Amino acid sequence: MTEPAHVSVIILAAGQGTRMKSKLPKVLHPIGAKPLLSHVIHTSAELKARQTVVVYGHGGELVKSTLADEPVVWVEQQEQLGTGHAVDQATPHIDDDHIILVLYGDVPLIKSSTLFELVEKTAGNALAILTVHLDDPHGYGRIVRDGSGAIQRIVEQKDASVEELKITEINTGILAVQGKLLKSWLSQLENNNAQGEYYLTDVIAMAVADGVAVHAAHPAGEDEVLGVNSRSQLAYLERAYQRDQAEQLMAQGVTLIDPARLDVRGQVKVGKDVTLDANVVLEGNVEIADDVYVGPNCVIRDSVIGEGVQIQAMCVIDNAVVGEKCLIGPYSRLRPGAELKGDNHIGNFVEVKNSVIGNGSKVNHLTYIGDTDMGSGVNIGAGTITANYDGANKHRTTIGDKASTGSNSVLVAPVRLGDGATLGAGTILTKEAPDGKLTVARTRQTTIDSWQRPQKKK
Ligand code: UD1
Ligand code: CA
Questions:
Q1: Model confidence at 226, in pLDDT bands (50, 70, 90)?
Q2: Nearest residue by C-alpha to atom 27 in ligand 1
Q3: Is 98 a catalytic residue?
Q4: Which among 60, 142, 377, 391 has the fewest CB atoms less than 10 Å away?
Q5: Is there an atom of ligand 1 within 6 Å of 77 CB?
Q6: In this predicted structure, what is the pLDDT of residue 113?
Q7: Which of 354, 417, 405, 344 is CA-nearest to residue 380?
């Protein structure tokens, strides 16, 4: 047996996308915060494509520069003369003996599993096309089969007869065939049709004429082959994508209180018995360990959440590390560089930035902890502020193990609060507070005996 042929992918992305009514090129519009075209490029990577060639159009420089890190070959199609012409721009970059798979930059949800099946159908030098039956096939190319059911050709909507328009099996546009064969057919394309374009779809009839077998494969679901031409279709596919993300999480053992109210905009790694309540948004790279609960309306971005953590409603966690068994929220904000060592309580209206909080320390109410190294077993009183910024530079605050701050303390950095030190309420700390002592820095309380409350004049 011979080795299976290598696959190379051509992604068509030269369309203007005028119906998006946008300054942004269509294929850069996001689904799950990732450009449409990136979805297709990443699917191509899952197929281990030898070569991925993206055909972009006039004004597509922004597409190229935005996705400059992707390992693809960029080819400009200067004039949009049709899908056949577009593919013809890319084929010189692909070896004759590779299977060429044609994908679309604006059809983002196509799955690699479907494409593997399609490519398998090219065995023995056959041509394989991906088709579906639609209740309303209007606008699509129709699959014309003979009496025995063999595919004969594709006819475009605008070229179809009344009889052909009744066909409900449509061309998704996605096809796969050996490079050498495709190149020979593309060189013979003509544009004498209703749209005056070089149709890629005309290669089907050429294959039949050359005695090449034509097979159809079908996607598992219709959403896989839907394209984005409008904001409405973009929103529809965003929902389809999110439904899929939710299904994947549930399959991994996550409880979703409402799968329709979860948004995943990146990669999520989850443990077992995680519960995500309504309206949770996960962005970037998020890792959530076993037995975590995330309450309603929380946003977690590029963060690691440890085992058994409970996050109550309305928290925003960004680039933070939350250690095991922490209780967060409601209404907490963890900003970049927040590192909670474990067993911490972070309460309502507490903001933590670029700080390490030692094991078991509690910051329960109305507090700002920034640029701070906090030990373990600390109790931070309500309204404590680390004043880390002098208007020009940021400074660090150090808080020792088992220290405690009274309500409304201000720690003016750089400053140190010693191990087991206590601050009296209202203290404005500008010098070190020694270990184990009570430090108070506020005006002493006085009572003025002779004072009388002014009376309203009659
Ligand atoms: C095409 C198919 C049709 C199929 C439909 C599925 C042809 C002739 N017809 O029709 O059978 O049912 O897709 O959606 O192929 N593009 C370029 N350069 C061009 C022309 C198009 O890059 O010169 C790109 C577009 O950006 C788009 C894709 O190719 O992503 C399809 O082009 P479009 O004009 O939408 O083709 P349809 O007429 O819809
Ligand atoms: Ca189209």
A1: very high
A2: 15
A3: no
A4: 391
A5: yes
A6: 97
A7: 405
pLDDT confidence of residue 5: 85
CA distance 80 to 136: 27
pLDDT confidence band for 29 (50 / 70 / 90): very high
Atom 8 in ligand 1: which residue has the minimum CA distance?
A: 199
Is the beta carbon of 32 within 6 A of some atom in ligand 1? no
Amino acid at 29: H
pLDDT digits over 263-297, tens only? 999 999 999 999 999 999 999 999 999 999 999 99
d(CA 150, CA 163): 18
User: Hey, what domains does the chain have and what are their CATH numbers?
Assistant: 7-225 (3.90.550.10), 253-439 (2.160.10.10)
How would you classify the pairing of strands 310-311 and 52-57? unpaired
83 CA from centroid of ligand 1 (Å): 5
Reply yes or no on whether the pLDDT at 100 is more than 90.
yes
**pLDDT given at position 422:** 98
Quote the pLDDT of residue 2.
60
